[in-house]
Design brief:
about 20% helix, 11 strands, about 230 residues, 2 domains, elongated
Length: about 230
């Protein structure tokens, strides 16, 4: 007699066969976290997030403003030319970049900032009017300045017989220096002139300004950025 279907032998089940029946999580199963949905965020939490975002933005703006102010005040600045005293080198409306860091460091370190001869510098009015002037440094501390016959002569320890500072490249376009002058530059001072050497064209160390103390030097002009077709370094 043949066995019926329900009497056929069943294959043995392996002891390590995985069960396909889902098992409930035990108490020790790891918990899977998730971010709360927008619906679950309370109004108070929303306000805190918005306040934190705005606080960070305001802080960034304040930090940017302070950084710009510090840079423009103590490191580098912009100024414009108004007047004829520096023609033909600079004209009214020219916008200049001024390098202030050497003067800033001099004040921090308790030293004196003396630019190089022929540098174009920005100086504060020694009469403390708040006005600023753009001039060229011609004489340095201990120099003796002599102007006669249309020429400037500087006497110093290296040139006891004198030399003409206008023999530098900038001097090629200058007219002869009008008038006469004789004087000594003091310690910690510079002697400045405008490039326009016509009589009365420049108020500088030859006239009412006199020698300029180092503390009145704002910085050195390093670049003309406007007009754009006349960008130039100095």
């Amino acid at each position: 007699m043949q066995p019926t279907d329900n009497q056929l032998p069943q294959p043995p089940v392996s002891q390590d066969q995985s069960s396909t029946v889902p098992q409930p999580l035990s108490a020790t199963s790891p918990h899977i976290s998730r971010a709360p949905s927008q619906a679950e965020i309370t109004p108070g939490l929303k306000r805190k997030r918005i306040l934190k975002s705005w606080t960070g933005l305001v802080g960034l703006v304040v930090l940017t403003v302070i950084s710009c102010w510090l840079i423009l005040t103590y490191v580098v600045g912009l100024t414009d030319v108004n007047g004829i005293s520096m023609q033909p080198t600079l004209y009214t409306g020219n916008i200049l970049v001024v390098w202030k860091l050497p003067q800033t460091w001099a004040k921090i370190s308790g030293s004196q900032y003396i630019p190089k001869r022929s540098n174009i510098v920005i100086i504060d009015d020694t009469n403390n009017t708040g006005e600023q002037f753009v001039k060229r440094a011609i004489g340095l501390p201990d120099d003796r300045i002599y102007i006669a016959n249309g020429q400037v002569t500087v006497y110093d320890s290296q040139h006891p017989r004198g030399f003409n500072p206008d023999s530098a490249p900038y001097g090629r376009d200058l007219i002869p220096t009008q008038g006469s002058f004789s004087g000594q530059v003091g310690v910690g001072q510079i002697f400045v002139m405008g490039d326009n050497r016509a009589a009365g064209a420049s108020i500088d160390s030859r006239s009412s300004m006199g020698n300029i103390p180092s503390s009145y030097i704002v910085g050195q002009v390093v670049l003309r950025i406007f007009p754009f077709n006349k960008i130039k370094t100095f």
